[in-house]
Design goal:
four-stranded mixed sheet, binds 6-O-phosphono-beta-D-galactopyranose, 15 helices, eight-stranded parallel sheet, alpha/beta, TIM Barrel
Length: 464
């Protein structure tokens, strides 16, 4: 007997500030690392994006029309603190006040990500996350958000995909500035983020007893490339390094021992200040949010060479000489962008996370990037997206039937926005935004087929 979705299930969708808002230098916003990064010339930059900053009312009205119960968005840190810390930008505060009020006027629950890749550039210039002072800046920023929005925002996410920032940081604007020991420096940044996150979680609980807060990593099930014991061991190593390092620190306030042994072996261990472990212990999450797109497959790596193998054109370059190497999973189909599609892996990972941490789960990203076609009469027939989402929603329901506590699903993305790596032709939304890679056109909003389909799913509290 398949269990139904819980009656208060948070059906929604996700975006992030730099990918959707545009208005990159308006109303006092400071530059972020994303704005200042060397941009690939072939794809859209983030200056205008979907211009949600000026269209948010229209956009939220459309989300309400779909029946959204929740909307997960991020606050641009550099809109609140143009210099990263110090002087507050009232216009930035004002914008998010309006956005939150607009959501609440439709009974849409705001789910607020505090930091989604777009570190204020002023902080980066002082060393970014390598500099311990960024922890203090984040704490000040977190407190400001709690003070201004804590009366209306119940669900808080700390850092989006911290594990991806560390494992693939160079493409997200937080690459290491220390050329001598880049990897050690990245794990130093990671440690600072863990401390910052724990402080924010503790502060949230002190200031807002009714609020709930959690981390939002990208979690994938890791498969061994074969049933060979060495491949299984490699998959286990990678799971600990990629997934549990981050969640163990967030939930248990401890470094995962397998990941720590790896850091020691490689000489990457972070320098800690006295009391850091107590800080990690003191800030605990109320739930785990995570993003899921695909699984990963790895086999053993015997080489000490830099043979960096990777999984085709999937966005992860996976490999650690002597430990694991990425491998293609021949059993899975791929998206137009080469990402393997694995709905069953979603159920596996929901089970894995829940059995490991016993905390309620919310999915904060999941979706399909594709080249959508705008047809005559403003039609976007994105049946491939409907298929992808349907298959994943089916697996959530099976996981719920397995006993996993899942309280929300916010696919990526609520509305078309600019992809982190591949411009605005790679679309994820339920709502089409009429723009090209370089021509922003009229930015008109168009309901895709998936919009009408998801509207029914929500109205039905699940699939037919
Ligand atoms: C996640 C990020 C999002 C989003 C998504 C899709 O890693 O949290 O910001 O970009 O991936 O990735 P892409 O835009 O590269 O297709």
């Amino acid at each position: 007997q398949i269990k139904p979705f819980p009656s208060k299930f948070l059906w929604g969708g996700s975006t992030s500030a730099y990918q959707v808002e545009g208005a990159w230098n308006e109303d006092g916003k400071g530059p972020s690392v994303i704005d200042m990064a060397n941009h690939v010339p072939e794809v859209t930059d983030f200056k205008v994006a979907s211009d949600h900053y000026h269209h948010y009312q229209e956009d939220i009205q459309l989300l309400a029309e779909m029946g959204f119960k929740a909307y997960r968005f991020s606050v641009s840190w550099a809109r609140i603190y143009p210099e990263g810390s110090g002087e507050l930008n009232q216009k930035g505060i004002q914008f998010y006040h309006q956005l939150i009020d607009e959501l609440l006027s439709y009974n849409i629950e705001p789910i607020l990500t505090m930091y989604h890749f777009d570190l204020p550039y002023a902080l980066e210039e002082q060393g970014g996350w390598s500099n311990r002072k960024t922890v203090d800046a984040f704490e000040q920023y977190a407190e400001t958000l709690f003070d201004h929005f804590g009366d209306r925002v119940k669900y808080w996410l700390t850092i989006n995909e911290q594990n991806m920032i560390i494992l693939h940081g160079s493409s997200i604007g937080t690459s290491s500035q220390d050329s001598e020991n880049q990897q050690q420096d990245l794990y130093q940044q990671n440690h600072h983020m863990l401390v910052a996150q724990a402080k924010a979680m503790a502060l949230c609980h002190r200031k807002l007893p009714n609020a709930k807060i959690g981390p939002a990593p990208n979690i994938a099930p890791i498969y061994p490339a074969s049933s060979k014991s060495e491949d299984i061991l490699a998959a286990n190593s990678y799971t600990n390094i990629r997934n549990w390092l981050y969640l163990d620190a967030a939930v248990y306030g401890q470094y995962n021992h397998v990941a720590w042994a790896y850091l020691e072996k490689k000489g990457y261990t972070p320098v800690m200040q006295e009391g850091d472990m107590r800080i990690l212990q003191a800030g605990k999450p109320d739930f785990i949010a995570f993003n899921y797109y695909t699984s990963q497959t790895v086999g053993e790596s015997t080489g000490g060479d830099m043979d960096y193998s990777h999984t085709g054109d999937q966005h992860e370059t996976v490999g650690e000489p002597g430990i694991y190497r990425g491998s293609v999973n021949e059993n899975l189909k791929k998206t137009e962008f080469g990402w393997e599609i694995d709905p069953v892996g979603f159920r596996t990972v929901l089970r894995e996370i829940y059995s490991r941490y016993h905390l309620p789960l919310i999915v904060t990203e999941n979706g399909l990037g594709a080249f959508d076609q705008l047809e005559e009469g403003d039609v976007v027939n994105d049946t491939y997206r409907i298929d992808y989402l349907r298959q994943h929603i089916e697996q959530i329901q099976l996981a719920i039937t397995d006993g996993v506590d899942v309280f929300g699903y916010c696919p990526w993305s609520a509305i078309d926005l600019v992809s982190t790596h591949q411009g605005s032709s790679k679309r994820y939304g339920f709502i089409y935004v009429n723009r090209d890679e370089f021509d922003v056109k009229d930015l008109r909003r168009i309901r895709k087929q998936s919009f009408y389909w998801y509207q029914k799913v929500i109205a039905n509290n699940g699939l037919e």
